[in-house]
Amino acid sequence: METRLKIMMIAFTISLSFTSCNAKTKNTETAISDHSSMNVAQEVSQLKAVFDNYFMLKDALVKSDGKKAAAMAKDLSSSLNGVKMETLKTEEHLVWMKVMKELKEDGRRISETEDIKRQRDYFSRLSKNMYSLIKVSKLAEPVYYNNCPMVNGGKGANWLSKESAIKNPYYGSQMLSCGKTIEKIQ
To answer: For the whole model, what pTM was predicted?
Structure first.
């Protein structure tokens, strides 16, 4: 009887150990999973600030407000400088390395002038590079890649928008709806 009791106690102890180890493993997996989603949120949030500032700059150009566009470009430059490229996903990191210098340069140039024509010229290249970055980022909402065929002496220029309705940043109220959507990015 005593041997039988000892065997049951040993079996109970072993069973309890496995249950305890299994619970620790699950808690560790949950912690790793939570940490992983936190990194994704950090990646999205730093690029989200860049994209949001780009869209606010675009809206200022739509309104032909050079002063506001300069201020929004300054905010864009700050968000570009705040990106920690080592935390970006591989594809984003590769594109970031290609476009970072020109994005920062165009943001700076737009912020240094209130001349709407010059701002719009810089915005054309800024939009091209921003498109490359936004294409590899996973966004929660669709983004529309639009084209105005009349800009640059008929060569055309593109821009990104969160709205499906065309609001041309290159001509503002002069030709607000000039252009078309050439791609919907999701």
So the answer is: 0.76
